[in-house]
Amino acid sequence: MPLISYELESVKSSNPSSTTGSKEGAVRAVVKSDSYEFPAQVYSEIVANRLAQFLGISLATGVAAKIGSGNEDLYFASLRVHEADRKLYDFTADGKPGYEDEPLLPGGVPSFGHEREIEKVCFEYPMETAHLAVFDLWIGNDDRHYNLKAEIESQGRGVVFAMDQGSSLLSCKETIDSSLEALESDCFPSQHMFKAKLQTESYLWSICERIQSMPDWAIQSAVFLDKRVGKVLEVDQVALMDVLKRRRDFLPNLIEHALLSPLLT
């Protein structure tokens, strides 16, 4: 996969303490915060990024962020990918006119006017899309449609990357408790935008094996961040760690159900 670069907003004065000529600068980002409707969004974004980095899943990088001093509010800054030198198809945008009347995709997912492009991204990136689909199932991301961008008209190898995992893990439902309850189910999520579009089944099982081989210490390192992260308490983080371990075990059932089962009619 080619290198994904991020967008510098500015490069300012030299860093006086640097011995290598570095400078002060600012990187552009989309900033998220927790809210009444999404009480664990920041935590879930951070953890999803950490898990993805360990597994080699192509997500736009994000970091935890704060503003000023004496402010305890924690934000998630999703870095903006530098797109000026790439022709990226934006699945987050509305598709062609009249898409509201198109039939649902297999699995009951709306196409939002992107059905041809979904087929193309699965064809051009069979491994990356398979890996992303299985990762989404593991972290309970029921909202992948359509939070990704990809070069689908490139000559040679382009890039594909996902963003916005704010509706996964402890934020996959309205509350932390209902999210944990949903994650206990081997039928959740029940669908994915790539269903019936993926090109190579073996890639599904290779990433499944990678997730199932992920050591407990790695999950703990990704999930347990602090005694409290926003409204996410230590006990919630321990509960998430335990449920992710259980989801490793029934991940093959999820793959069969959400990605390989007979299509809805």
In brief:
With 265 residues, the chain is an alpha+beta fold. The protein has 7 helices and 10 strands. The mean pLDDT is 89.
Characterize the structure shown:
- The chain has helices spanning 41-55, 115-124, 126-139, 176-183, 201-212, 216-223, 234-260, and strands at 8-14, 23-27, 29-33, 62-65, 75-79, 89-90, 148-150, 160-162, 228-229, 232-233.
- By secondary structure, the protein is α+β, with helices and mostly antiparallel strands.
- The chain has one domain (8-12, 26-260).
- The strands form four sheets. A three-stranded antiparallel beta sheet has the order 3-5-4, covered by helices on one side.
- β9 and β10 form a beta hairpin.
- α3 crosses α7 (234-260), α5 (201-212) runs antiparallel to α7 (234-260) and α6 (216-223) packs across α7.
- The longest helix has 27 residues, at 234-260.
- The relative contact order is 0.16.
Task: Describe the secondary-structure layout.
Layout (H helix, E strand, L loop, with lengths): L7 E7 L8 E5 L1 E5 L7 H15 L6 E4 L9 E5 L9 E2 L24 H10 L1 H14 L8 E3 L9 E3 L13 H8 L17 H12 L3 H8 L4 E2 L2 E2 H27 L5
